Amino acid sequence: MAIFAETLRTISTVILIISSAIYLLHLEKAKKQQKLSTVDFIMYIIIQVAYCLCAISLLIFVFIL
C-alpha cells in the first residue's frame, strides 16, 4: 500500500510540474504581447520560485541523503 501511495504522489508531482511549465510558457508569451496583470505577474514569480526550490530540494536529496 505504501508503494501505491508513493507512486500516486510521484505521478501527481510530475503532472503539477508539467502543468506549471505549460502555464509558465503561456505567461511568458502573454508578457511579450502585453503587460501582465497583477495576479498573472504574481503567478509568474511564484512558479519560478517553486522551480528553484524544487531544484534545490532535489540537489539536497541526491547529494546529502
Overview of this structure, please?
This protein has 65 residues and is mainly alpha-helical. The protein is 89% helix and 0% strand. It has 2 helices and no strands. It has helices at 2-33, 38-63. It is elongated. The two termini are 24 Å apart. 0% of the residues are buried. The chain crosses the membrane at residues 7-26, 41-64. Keywords: Membrane, Transmembrane, Transmembrane helix.
What are the key terms here?
65 residues, mainly alpha, 2 helices
Note the topology.
Layout: H1 2-33, H2 38-63
Helix pairs in contact: 1-2
Keywords: Membrane, Transmembrane, Transmembrane helix
Transmembrane segments: 7-26, 41-64
Overall strand count: 0
Number of helices: 2
> Structural class per helix/strand content?
mainly alpha
Task: Report the C-alpha radius of gyration, rounded.
Answer: 15 Å
Strand percent estimate: under 5%
Low-confidence stretches: none
What is the mean pLDDT?
88
- Strand-and-helix sequence, N→C? HH
Largest sheet: none
Shape: elongated
> Which percent range fits the helix content?
over 70%
